[in-house]
Amino acid sequence: MNRSQNNLLTSIVGFSFLITAITSLSTHAGTITQRDDVKQFIDQMVEQHQFEKQSLLTLFSQVKLQKRVEKAIASPAEAKPWYKYRSIFLTTSRTEGGVEFWKENADVLAETEKRFGVPPEIITAIIGVETRYSKHTGGFRVIDSLSTLAFNYPKRSKFFRKELEQFLLLCREEEANPLELTGSYAGAMGIPQFMPSSFRHYAADFDGDGKKDIWKNTSDVIASVANYFTIHGWQKGAPVAFPVSVEGEQYKEVIGNSLKPKRTLAELQSHGVNIGESTLPLDTTARLLSLKQKNSTEEWAVLTNFYVITRYNHSDHYAMAVYQLSQEIKNRYALLAAKQ
Fold first, then answer.
1. Are 203 and 212 in contact, with CB atoms under 8 Å apart?
2. How far does CA 328 lie from the centroid of its chain?
3. Which residues are catalytic?
4. Single pTM value for the model
5. Which residues of the chain fall below pLDDT 70?
6. 231-268 pLDDT, tens per residue?
7. Half-sphere exposure of 268 (CA within 13 A, CB side)
8. Given its phi and psi angles, is residue 248 left (phi above 0), alpha (psi -120 to 50 degrees) or beta?
């Protein structure tokens, strides 16, 4: 047996032992393990990833499908109009919390910016929007949330089955108890609310302790968010968005449905978009975004870095909340620094 095979066997045995130790191997009657789709999923994990079948049966016999999860996924905050969505995240307390987070982690944020090119205010705002700087990381067992959505939410079952698969692989790799990890109703985990696939692809071990800890290690959290942005194409030093005004009706033709910017500032201008005092080259890739206020709309030119923020959460509202919060935090932080 070569070294890689031995390591694989050790991981499998270790994971199996962990699951088996959680509970006795009693009957699974009345649990979700009686469902054909769950049986199929377990068989897939055994065949594709060499998990031990009895261990997975024992694990899934303790999974509880949650009606609360189904209800929450049906009413995401992003569905609210912008003026209501904004009021959730653009608050004095969240701004002040961001300033405190920045002050407490200034050295790590500065080092991360040097290494990854992502500014402190953006990383801080992401963490502020996601979990209020670690105060609200979610109280659902991740395996319950993912199983509920994988097997009881047909609209996105394919996505969540993949995330459930990634979660089990993550637990095996990190030697974590799958019944203990908690997160959001959608299965997002830790302070930065990474989905399992994101954890496996982008989580970073900043302090070199051999663990990618996004639950308690703030330096790992900061580096993981920065790594996520860098891999998704963050442009160091480039702007994110700026407000514009519009005239006539032609501008409506350049409000696209795609999150990815595909036009240029010159094209926006030719369709009645006034880019004001922007000094960006007119061949800069951009997209016109119109956000609903209570009795009007506000328009923005959003750029490549805005699109990168939407890779974290595929929502214009989310990305704009992160950007505007980041600017509030940055301005407040600079003001306090100037007084010292």
1. yes
2. 21
3. 130
4. 0.89
5. 1-30
6. 999 999 999 999 999 999 999 999 978 999 999 999 99
7. 31
8. left
